[in-house]
Amino acid sequence: MNLKEFSASIGLSQTTVSRAMSGYPEVKPETRARVLEAAERLGYRPNISAQRLATGRAGAIGIVFQGGGRFGPHSSEFMGGLSTRLQRDGIDILVSTVETGEDEAAAYRRFAASKRVDAVIVHTPACTDARIALLQALELPFIVHGRSEAKNPFAFLDIDNFGAIETATKHLVDLGHRRIALINGDTVSTFARDRDRAYHKTLAARGFDADPALVGRGEFTDETGFRLMQAFLGLPVPPTAVIAGSMMSALGAMRAIRVAGLTVGRDVSLIAHDDVFPYLSPDNLVPAVTTTQSPIRAAGERIGDMVLRLLQGEAPEALQEVWPVDLRIRGSTGPAPA
Q: What is the maximal distance between C-alpha atoms in the chain?
């Protein structure tokens, strides 16, 4: 069944059917529901090329990854959630990998000029991010996974990174810990800056000075977590607790603690920022790991929903969400050793 036959069978024009299936805001919700129900019942699937000609849309969302380190387990989980949501509306994802910031900017310019995507998703934003100003100048719709400072409003989804580390730090202080280490990302990124601020402000509020030697930064990998934790444990006065910025870096930190002949949860308490990987459950580790929980796959799904709403005409300032982060206490945290 082609578009002409399907449209005739439900008594609507071809343009109305195409626009209804593409989510155009001028199509009434009841009309869209009628079209989608009939398409499901009759087994109609639109010809993508014809639909794009009729609607003027590419039917794709773009995302650019800069450098090999930016595409790891976190990116895979996010992309899984994003694709799950977009597939329900027949939207493809166009992925571009680049080496530098200049290459990434060039990729956005190509997207805008070629009209191969209807919108893009920006990830790992810097505190002040030139990509946001560029996309606004290009008039290419976009949503940011994270937050940044910008002159004009933009759509975003973020988690409360400040609140997550504030809660984790308070929990460890309440357990009697005074030497608390932090494994963080590069503070050029907003999420890492917010976590750094939360760590320092929480310690200061409790009357403690943060030791710069107990703060390490790098990619969230097992190797980075291991290397930084080894350096912490080699200090004249090592930490009795550590907050790891991801489950991947937490694994490395746990390995370093064991190599040093120490026990996680007894000699050194550990809290991980948990991105809810289906293949790496904090409950199944030994000991079970205390986490600040952040469902990254769910974030991908939600951003997929938000980008479609953006394309349907919702204002960017109406598409701004910050998700709270829960602290899940398990066996990797305990009282500070005497």
A: 80
